[in-house]
Amino acid sequence: MKEMMVRQRWRRQGIARGLHDVLLAGRPETQASLMVNPLNQDGKVQALYASWGYGALGTAQSSPEAPVVTVMVRRVRPELAAG
Question: Residues 25, 61: contact at Cβ < 8 Å?
Fold first, then answer.
């Protein structure tokens, strides 16, 4: 998925988390990654992802004009992570 956004009036109802979880359910991969602008909503979006189990891995910038984003990763299927 490229971007996910919930309109203002439907926020804080678990909709984004529900969409996220449905998209990851049944995937064969052991981990998922995302990129977030740490300045988005004064860091609240990155904090939200951290509360969902994502950890910051580093940063990336697609071009000199683009914002620096935080790369975050979390386990999806921990039972397969060991190999």
Answer: no
Residue 19 CB partners (closer than 8 Å, separation 6+): 4
Measure the CA angle with vertex 67, ends 43 and 39; round to 5°: 10
Under DSSP, the state recorded for 7 is -
pLDDT tens figures, 5-28: 889 999 899 999 999 999 999 889
Q: How confident is the model at residue 79 (pLDDT cuts 50, 70, 90)?
A: low
> CB pairs under 8 A, 24+ apart, for 72-78?
72/33, 72/34, 72/35, 72/36, 72/46, 73/31, 73/32, 73/33, 74/31, 74/32, 75/30, 75/31, 76/24, 76/27, 76/29, 76/30, 76/31, 76/32, 77/27, 77/28, 77/29, 77/30, 78/30
